[in-house]
């Protein structure tokens, strides 16, 4: 990872890049970008780093952002693969926090099923190698809490299968071993997610049974008919999660989250820009916290969040455009990604719901946001204050939000173009 940061720093001094930006150095046309994917050992559509980067290359996505949960060792392989392909890498993270007052009040933020659960991202992180001690302590707390919960859930699911006459002999270490075998990662890099557990039980169940007997067994296990076909691996995984792992189901274990303040502190400790991942009409109805969009913008300001992200595959184009343009009008840069955090291998360039193209009027805004992120990452890699300072407040060296966005977008565009020119991939 240090080598990758050295590559970015090595593009030039801060003064040299600022001069290049002032002269208009930038890609001739805005390249396709994707601000948010997950890679193994996170649950992911991709088998490995090389597959993700190869698909990005094939689909002409030239800026690619990784936003994993709670372990960043894969970033080393990611940036090396991006360098070979001459794709500009951006580094991010995603965290799940809990706002207890909102949970108590029943207010949904950006999780349609869980009041008070608060997803937040960091963009342009640079302090993951070596890991900042404050960040390391928070991450270790998160990983311990998650591991305990997954251990309990795996035990409960295994017991449910066994009572139905299907003893799969799966424990926590068995599930971790399956992730390691599938992706070739280190065991201590794995933070198990619910989808990992579902996949492990589905695969073991399929190996243990014949297709013709699965429907009856699954009905016995779930206490209800399985809606997925008996040979539909992904469908059965979803049914395991729905019938056994959701709140109120027999294998559910209450999650222990860090607070929003701790999540925010983690992002700043890693040198990132706190960024609000917007669900919008990815929930029906739209979560209370996010509507109307003007209220959401004020909510972000109140929490000192000065960048936003959408995953447009969740959104109708008109809603997507409304949120993006409202954010930008309010002086908040916006980026867009795909996540790829299920087994669905969707396209690498974000599209809206149903595969509809993102509205043309927002593309410049999204490119601008990508450049702001790249500019921040470059300055932070040089130990300089980026788009936000160490307290998360917007960099005070600019007259206003427009001047700040313009300066960072220009710097980021120069950084990206110089990176492309220095590469050997294309």
What are the defining features of this structure?
about 425 residues, alpha/beta, eight-stranded mixed β-sheet, 15 helices, 8 strands
How would you concisely characterize the structure shown here?
The protein is of the alpha/beta class and 426 residues long. It has helices spanning 2-9, 14-22, 49-58, 74-85, 100-105, 133-163, 172-183, 194-208, 211-222, 233-245, 260-269, 293-302, 317-329, 363-381, 401-422, and strands at 32-37, 61-68, 88-98, 117-123, 258-259, 273-278, 308-310, 334-336. The chain contains 15 helices and eight strands.
Describe the structure.
The mean pLDDT is 95. It is built from 15 helices and eight strands. It is an alpha/beta fold. The chain has helices spanning 2-9, 14-22, 49-58, 74-85, 100-105, 133-163, 172-183, 194-208, 211-222, 233-245, 260-269, 293-302, 317-329, 363-381, 401-422, and strands at 32-37, 61-68, 88-98, 117-123, 258-259, 273-278, 308-310, 334-336. Strands 1, 2, 3, 4, 5, 6, 7 and 8 form an eight-stranded mixed beta sheet that branches. 47% of the residues are buried. Helix content is 47%, strand content 11%. α3 runs parallel beside α4, α8 packs across α10 and α14 (363-381) packs across α15. α13 (317-329) links the parallel β7 and β8 (334-336).
